[in-house]
């Protein structure tokens, strides 16, 4: 469950920007996303001390360590990239199906990939 923390935190971060952009499109929040999240994630991810977004947690003491820029900003940036390469309509279909399928249970990143792939093939 903890290994897919990036899904929860990445979506929360990205959807915050999407929501604000819908309410106030003149604020340029999606451009701000690039500076605040994408560039920061790419910079930190280039370091030797970086880690994958999907991290195996073997002990509860390791959990606080994964609440970091990689989980939040890199996770949100990967979700943004999916939205762009799949198209907004396909992305929305995939996310809708994904959320409907797991509204009462836990999902893993493979579940997201499956729903995005299915939406892309429709």
TrEMBL record:
One of its GO terms (cellular component) is cytoplasm. One of its GO terms (molecular function) is metalloaminopeptidase activity. Pfam families: Peptidase_M1. It comes from the Eukaryota. Residues 1-120 form the Peptidase M1 membrane alanine aminopeptidase domain. GO terms for biological process: peptide catabolic process; proteolysis. PANTHER family: PROTEASE M1 ZINC METALLOPROTEASE (PTHR11533), THYROTROPIN-RELEASING HORMONE-DEGRADING ECTOENZYME (PTHR11533:SF294). This is Peptidase M1 membrane alanine aminopeptidase domain-containing protein.
């Amino acid at each position: 469950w903890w290994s897919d923390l990036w899904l929860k935190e990445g979506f929360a971060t990205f959807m915050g920007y999407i929501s604000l952009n819908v309410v106030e499109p003149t604020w340029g929040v999606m451009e701000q996303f690039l500076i605040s999240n994408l560039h920061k994630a790419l910079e930190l991810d280039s370091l030797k001390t970086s880690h994958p977004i999907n991290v195996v947690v073997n002990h509860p003491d390791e959990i606080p360590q994964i609440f970091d820029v990689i989980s939040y900003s890199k996770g949100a940036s990967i979700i943004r990239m999916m939205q762009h390469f799949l198209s907004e309509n396909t992305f929305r279909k995939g996310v809708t199906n994904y959320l409907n399928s797991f509204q009462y249970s836990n999902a893993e990143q493979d579940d997201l990939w499956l729903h995005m792939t299915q939406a892309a093939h429709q």
